[in-house]
Specification:
The protein is mainly alpha-helical. The chain contains 14 helices and no strands. It has helices at residues 3-20, 28-32, 36-71, 83-97, 103-127, 135-157, 161-164, 185-195, 197-203, 207-212, 217-238, 245-257, 261-285, 294-316.
Amino acid sequence: MSVKIKLGLAIIILSILSLSIGNLDFSWFDLLRGHRESLNVLIVSRIPRLVAVILTGVGLSIGGLIMQQIVHNKFVSPSTTTTASSARLGIMFAIAFLPQQSMLQRSVFAFTFALVGTLMFMWLMQRIKFKDVVFVPLLGMMLGSVIDAITTFLALRLDVMQTLNGFTIGSFTLLIKGRYEMMYLLVLVIIITYVYAKAFNIVALGSDYANNLGLNYKQVVMIGVLIVSLNSAVIVSIVGNISFVGIIIPNLVSRWFGDKVDSTLTLTALCGALFLLVADIISRLIIFPYEVPVSLTIGIIGSIGFILLIMKQVRHE
């Protein structure tokens, strides 16, 4: 049995478990008997949450993988550069100036700011000669912290801090029918990533190599930036901030199965979905019937994993 099939089966089993967990009364036996209440719980609450968890896991892991290819660094992701923090800044402006904003309007603001923030980071990277494997993500996190500080300051001045707090902590608690549908934009992101998978492979080898092979290096990098920005904007504006998935999953997959994007993309997506499913289930069960925000669970696991990855890299060098 191949690894992809095993991962797929694990996701199916955990998906059934995820659909079974929650505060609202739900029973598979009642559902089979045709009870309307159980069907409503499944359609309105459980399935939207499950779809959001899986798409978020896939989106975060793929976004991290693309970011690592175009920046040429294994320790960067939207959460360790300016992408996610810029998306939150965009959401803050949407909340402040469009009090009755829709999910689409909020996502547009987030995407615009995420795109500008990512381009700013890429521009800065091109002008820095010292590109140590640890220095680049540290610089990204410092710049992200500056943007977060600006976001907090403006949110306090504009009196929208309380509303903004909902987007700084990643959680699937409030995702029900009618509040998650923008997540399906991530399907478009996934499709485009598959189309350009081989191009991202070549881009990772550098501009000279890519140009010699007849590939438009700048165009592919720009497509990667657009994918990462849209990906982050949708996730941050609907789920909130979730860190480390985009670093941990691509690194683990590359260690086990190699660095070729076109051959490991599906594995990265499946591992990302599986990881977030496990984290979400733990978050829902650890103090049941209450929930711990999933970003808290992932933050603990991810920060430990991130430190271990850096220590291994430093030791290797």
